Amino acid sequence: RTVYVNGQYLPETEATVSIFDRGFLMADGVYEVTSVLDGKLIDFDGHAIRLSRSLNELEMKNPISKADLLEVHRELVRLNEIEEGLVYLQITRGSDGDRDFAYPAPETEPTIVLFTQNKPGLADNPAARKGAKVISIEDIRWGRRDIKTVQLLYPSMGKMMAKKAGCDDAWMVQDGYVTEGTSNNAYIVKGNKIITRALGNEILHGITRAAVLRFAREAQMEIEERNFTIDEAKEADEAFTTSASAFVMPVVEIDGVALGDGTPGRVAPRLREIYLDEMR
Ligand code: PDD
């Protein structure tokens, strides 16, 4: 692969970052994942806007303009011949060559890294026809989940707990209420109503979430943005998740309880189709 690091396009084996980088030592960094379909970026604008917000919230300077960032995304997609896949972008606070809890001097340059992931079959994914099985776990992450930081250890642990249980993913639960999946936003469907947690500091403000809710409203579907418990979820007709890497993914089982007849249902597959049709 050709990757991008601090202004240069390099073979992945030649790209390097300092061992003192605060992304490495302190998880002091933010990221974005943008999908690619038919060689084109999906919702780049949404991701660029959220990136600015994450950087602002952490008082980190943005090392690249939106126009240049778009150009780097496009160039990597071109160089790596990505038809379907993902572009990963990470910006960390960089380093001034030592470890310290205090931020380095303001003139310290952030580190910016981008790479592509080739994922043929991302849109026509057999997993989406089958639906995902999830377990529920306690949400013990920090209180600013609206900032897309690279602190992903707990979500990784959740993913492993799900795998050990023979499932695909974990939904995180705080005070009895579902926050979100390890790397996606969570929804349940009751009758014609789509229910999903309202935006706040407890969840990431999904770019796919915003688009899917917009399309659902345009299709006259009813939407309720409110907390729902894991017990309410287990009694729902359907459930699903959204993310840039999996679009709309039906959920067919929660903690061993099948939803409806244990197949993807009516609403989630339709939303997936609408999303893919509208965005590509
Ligand atoms: N994850 N919630 C969490 C905790 C996430 O990590 C993500 C995305 C989402 C969905 O956001 P969006 O629709 O903007 O992708 C919600 C990315 C895909 C990842 O970590 O790979």
From TrEMBL:
BP term (GO), one: amino acid biosynthetic process
Statement: the UniProt record of this protein carries the keyword Transmembrane: no
Pathway: Amino-acid biosynthesis; L-valine biosynthesis; L-valine from pyruvate: step 4/4; Amino-acid biosynthesis; L-leucine biosynthesis; L-leucine from 3-methyl-2-oxobutanoate: step 4/4; Amino-acid biosynthesis; L-isoleucine biosynthesis; L-isoleucine from 2-oxobutanoate: step 4/4
SUPFAM superfamilies per record: D-aminoacid aminotransferase-like PLP-dependent enzymes
InterPro entries hit by this protein: Aminotrans_IV, Aminotrans_IV_CS, Aminotransferase-like, BCAT-like_C, BCAT-like_N, Class-IV_PLP-Dep_Aminotrnsfr
GO molecular function: branched-chain-amino-acid transaminase activity
Cofactor: pyridoxal 5'-phosphate
Reaction it catalyzes: L-leucine + 2-oxoglutarate = 4-methyl-2-oxopentanoate + L-glutamate; L-isoleucine + 2-oxoglutarate = (S)-3-methyl-2-oxopentanoate + L-glutamate; L-valine + 2-oxoglutarate = 3-methyl-2-oxobutanoate + L-glutamate
Family: Belongs to the class-IV pyridoxal-phosphate-dependent aminotransferase family.
Protein name per Swiss-Prot or TrEMBL: Probable branched-chain-amino-acid aminotransferase
Organism whose genome encodes this protein: Sulfitobacter alexandrii
Taxonomic classification: Bacteria, Pseudomonadati, Pseudomonadota, Alphaproteobacteria, Rhodobacterales
